[in-house]
TrEMBL record:
The keyword NAD does not apply. Keywords: Kinase, Transferase. It comes from Aquimarina spongiae. This is cAMP-binding domain of CRP or a regulatory subunit of cAMP-dependent protein kinases. Residues 33-114 form the Cyclic nucleotide-binding domain. Signal peptide: none annotated. SUPFAM superfamilies: cAMP-binding domain-like. The keyword Transferase applies. One of its GO terms (molecular function) is kinase activity. CDD domains: CAP_ED. It holds the Pfam family cNMP_binding.
Amino acid sequence: MKHPLRQHIEEIITLTDEEFDFVLSHFTPTIKKKHQYIVQEGDYVDKEYWIIKGCLKSYFVDDQGKEHILQFGMENWWITDYESFVKRVKSKTYIDCIEDSELLYITYENREKLTAEMHKMERFWAKKSKMGRIALQNRVLALLKSSTKEQYEMLLEQYPALFQRVPKKMIAAYLGVSRETLSRLDS
């Protein structure tokens, strides 16, 4: 059976065994417990995480102490504070584990080294970045032009497994509504 990261990468590019071994040598496995942070506001982030198993959330806390979820991450998803990762500035977000999680991470330095030495991986991350921008654009468009009920239904249709893994209050924080509003949509 192929390594799950290899399966993920080969959705976009093909790798020989030697090439995959080289790619994998740039990653470090880590296990995190439920509620454990991988990023906190104010950190300088030098790691990008790929989720083997588990569920995470990326969020910020406003001045009133309210949590706003930007992204969930599940198996085969990438997650980090990208502004901090790329620009080397302090993180504006938190990322923590909703479930016990198995992750692989690559440091910024190793990612730069890998893409410089292996152009296939540069193409892989370029495609992943494009797909991420499309997802972000669709999320912003949904926020601007869809009702909360429509956003809820789109989320349920796109990621039905998420609703089995994430408490309703987190779905509400992702949609920007109260738990009570979400309960009305759910009925």
